[in-house]
Fold:
Amino acid sequence: MPKPITILYVEDNFENRMLVRRLLTVEGYEIVEAENAHKALAIIPSIEPDLILMDMNMPDIDGYTLTAQLKEIPKLAAVPIIAITANVMRGDREKTMQAGCDGYIEKPINVDKFTEQVERFLHGVK
Structure:
């Protein structure tokens, strides 16, 4: 049996984590959650994510800073990091890409399209 696809979701909002977990686990993905950057950094050594979903607005260390830190870790350098953010003003997408994100999904999450969006990023289609 093949190893399930593991997705790390870094998000400080509990309701958002519940929604994403529900949408993706029903599709067979293994979801590992971290409610802040410190937790994400603590669990990274023990997991091998295939994809990272990153909230950009978090207290303490924001998603931009954490993305840059994760891209410096050799085992994560090729792992796609996808911003999930309510920052949708002009220049916000570019800011996430400059931080090292490989893609961008707007909040609020469109539950009808979310799984399809995640699958496109897993298969390298932007």
About this structure: The first strand starts at residue 6 and ends at 10.
